[in-house]
């Protein structure tokens, strides 16, 4: 076997002596300090050429980029590999490199060296004459014959240049990866670099030779083992999964109700849930859960078709190494396979060590994370946004629910001892029993008026001192507040953590009173909903959690029931057995109060009051005192005398039963109105305010008459008609100020 060939690079500079560098293994030439041979200011790239000797073959990897490199007369392509022969001439920038063998690596003679050196010495005439004689003795014809023979020999050898295949199987994977690393470093360092312009110095003597054609390196791809970037890790996949779940929850819980899509899907999912209830744990498969799963799958398919992967993966720096079309087909197949394999987490375990999962192997997918920095930035930037989507979306869509409302707590109403009396007024019409201490100067009258197909019961308060004060209080409606809380508890995963006793009571199938702890938590939910704003989010987060849709929905319903206006004032009164909410509103002429009463049974009743603005203080005190004395009405609670509560219940019963009343009831009701009319006459006489009071009371009696007459319009009720006639005579006596009428009648 012949000895291995050693190669030498004969480097020729335009302004200094040539240099010879031996190549053994790998050698890099460039202007950067990272290069093995660093040459500055000659128009080279930071790492321009990479030479490698393997099995006595010298190869060249061109990394010059924009800085051109010529092999002979042909321009070399950037990033390509070429095989070099002895005698090949490279030109890079202002430098020329000639490939020589180690045997030809003799030193250049001194007289040739002096040709490239900048000597300032003056040449003597003797030395000049000697050189001229030597040149004259040279036979030019001999030189030309020798050159022609050499050129013909070279042409014969180069007539059929053989393209050599370079077998990369002889190289190790480390050597190949090193070459790729060099290329990346060269490309990075080459950007922004600019070569300096230097004046080229033409050589005095240069022997012409035939330029060899460059031979581009070709290799057998089958023998090359390609290395891939590692697959996405378990954390990237986990963050992507959580992000997609958050997007699905936001769409189902917020966007679907906005466009009534949930109403269209609900009937179909109800049929499915009934079938699933028969299987174990089937009751956990609710409509919302199935909608979330369906939206998750649809989003996966949609993003797979558009992006070739999920949107979170793309933002987290994951890339697909396949082609545009193939990557999208593989993504759709992965989604379909994941529907089957998702419950079996074992198939995703390879991602722990950054290996491909089963669905990626089956579909031939190549997901990778080429840039760690991009991955870190993507996760830290976008994952919190996805995670907050279920929390932020309801806030954005319900900004009105986050308006600040000032809420104050009421104090118990105190009555002076001189005016204090104790009374109990059970009223089924008002759905309450009012038991407590009252001001004896206040007169209470029953009121009732028809409204559509119903009747509205209520009471009128009036007080006659220096001036007349009049107030109306009416039963308005029932409010099923527990249903509102039940309907929205599922949208708050932390509801059971903050309100465990309330949740237990809500889930109970039996009707029972709230326990003290459950009732306190019910009041807490109401106050948290009313305090829903951006002023103190930390307090709300601690007391309720990060999910606010249930509070937003409850607050909207409370605002509607209490008819809260922008200038309304909200206050509450709380005891262990009841919870009161007051909404006060002052218009230009009137003062209105909406009251919600919540008892231990979870029943919420809405009342409303109305008075003139000048009587606001009187109205506020009487309304507060009335409902602070509220108690749950029991079936056994009845009035002992014919007061306003018993009279009101009788009037309402006539409308509901359409039955006539008895003589005793006629007499009792008439006596109640007669005594109050007599009181009006006496109070007006003492205070010389008879006219205003009589007019007000007369209007009140007319409203009672009108109600009774409406009952007899389509039904024959003789006793009721008789009561109407009696009240009419009483009202006429008041208008005429007939004192004899009141003195004759008992």
Automatic annotation (TrEMBL):
The chain crosses the membrane at residues 292-311, 331-353, 374-397. CDD domains: FHA. Residues 27-76 form the FHA domain. The keyword Protein transport does not apply. Keywords: Membrane, Transmembrane, Transmembrane helix. It comes from the Bacteria. This is FHA domain-containing protein. It comes from Halobacteriovorax marinus.
């Amino acid at each position: 076997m012949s000895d291995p060939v050693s190669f030498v690079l004969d480097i020729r500079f335009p302004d200094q002596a040539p240099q010879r560098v031996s190549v053994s293994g790998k050698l890099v030439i460039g202007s950067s300090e990272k290069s093995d041979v660093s040459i500055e200011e000659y128009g080279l790239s930071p790492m321009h050429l990479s030479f490698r000797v393997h099995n006595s073959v010298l190869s060249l990897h061109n990394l010059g980029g924009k800085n051109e490199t010529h092999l002979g007369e042909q321009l070399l392509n950037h990033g390509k590999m070429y095989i070099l022969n002895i005698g090949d001439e490279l030109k890079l920038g202002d430098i020329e490199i000639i490939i020589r063998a180690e045997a030809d690596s003799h030193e250049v003679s001194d007289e040739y060296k002096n040709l490239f050196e900048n000597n300032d010495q003056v040449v003597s005439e003797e030395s000049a004459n000697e050189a001229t004689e030597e040149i004259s003795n040279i036979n030019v014809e001999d030189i030309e014959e020798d050159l022609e023979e050499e050129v013909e020999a070279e042409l014969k050898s180069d007539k059929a240049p053989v393209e050599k295949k370079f077998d990369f199987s002889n190289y190790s994977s480390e050597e190949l990866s090193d070459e790729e690393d060099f290329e990346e470093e060269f490309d990075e360092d080459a950007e922004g670099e600019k070569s300096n312009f230097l004046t080229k110095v033409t050589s005095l003597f240069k022997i012409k030779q035939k330029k060899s054609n460059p031979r581009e390196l070709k290799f057998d791809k089958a023998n090359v083992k390609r290395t891939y970037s590692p697959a996405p890790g378990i954390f990237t996949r986990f963050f992507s999964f959580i992000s997609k779940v958050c997007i699905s929850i936001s769409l189902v819980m917020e966007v679907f109700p906005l466009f009534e899509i949930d109403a269209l899907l609900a009937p179909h999912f109800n049929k499915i849930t009934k079938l699933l209830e028969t299987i174990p744990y089937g009751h956990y498969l609710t409509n919302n859960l199935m909608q979330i799963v369906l939206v998750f799958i649809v989003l996966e398919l949609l993003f797979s078709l558009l992006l070739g992967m999920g949107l979170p993966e793309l933002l987290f720096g994951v890339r697909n190494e396949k082609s545009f079309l193939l990557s999208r087909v593989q993504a759709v197949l992965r989604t379909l396979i994941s529907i089957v394999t998702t419950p079996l987490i074992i198939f995703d375990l390879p991602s722990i060590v950054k290996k491909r999962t089963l669905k990626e192997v089956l579909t031939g997918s190549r997901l990778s994370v080429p840039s760690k920095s991009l991955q870190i930035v993507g996760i830290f930037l976008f994952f919190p946004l996805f995670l907050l989507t279920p929390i932020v979306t309801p806030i954005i869509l319900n900004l009105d629910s986050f308006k600040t409302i000032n809420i104050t707590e009421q104090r118990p109403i105190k009555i002076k001892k001189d005016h204090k009396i104790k009374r109990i007024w059970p009223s089924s019409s008002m759905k309450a029993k009012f038991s407590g201490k009252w001001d004896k100067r206040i007169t209470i009258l029953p009121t009732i008026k028809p409204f559509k197909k119903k009747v509205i019961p209520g009471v009128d308060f009036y007080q006659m001192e220096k001036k007349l004060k009049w107030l109306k209080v009416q039963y308005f409606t029932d409010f099923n507040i527990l249903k509102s809380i039940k309907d929205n508890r599922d949208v708050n995963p932390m509801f059971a953590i903050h309100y465990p006793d309330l949740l237990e009571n809500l889930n109970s199938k039996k009707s029972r009173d709230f326990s003290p702890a459950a009732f306190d938590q019910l009041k807490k939910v109401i106050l948290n909903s009313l305090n829903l704003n951006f002023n103190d989010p930390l307090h709300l987060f601690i007391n309720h959690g990060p999910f606010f849709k249930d509070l937003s929905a409850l607050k909207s319903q409370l605002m509607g029931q209490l008819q809260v206006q922008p200038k309304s004032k909200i206050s509450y009164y709380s005891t262990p057995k009841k919870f009161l909410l007051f909404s006060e509103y002052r218009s230009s002429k009137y003062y209105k109060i909406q009251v919600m009463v919540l008892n231990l049974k979870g029943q919420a009743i809405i009342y409303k009051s109305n008075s003139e603005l000048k009587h606001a203080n009187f109205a506020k005190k009487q309304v507060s005192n009335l409902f602070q004395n509220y108690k749950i009405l029991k079936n056994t609670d009845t009035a002992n005398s014919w007061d306003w509560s018993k009279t009101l219940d009788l009037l309402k019963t006539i409308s509901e039963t359409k039955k006539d009343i008895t003589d005793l009831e006629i007499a009792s009701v008439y006596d109640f109105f007669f005594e109050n009319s007599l009181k009006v006459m006496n109070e007006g006489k003492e205070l010389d305010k008879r006219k205003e009071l009589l007019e007000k009371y007369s209007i009140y009696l007319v409203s009672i008459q009108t109600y009774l007459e409406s009952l007899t319009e389509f039904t024959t009720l003789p006793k009721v008609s008789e009561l109407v006639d009696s009240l009419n005579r009483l009202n006429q006596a008041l208008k005429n100020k007939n004192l004899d009428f009141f003195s004759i009648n008992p």
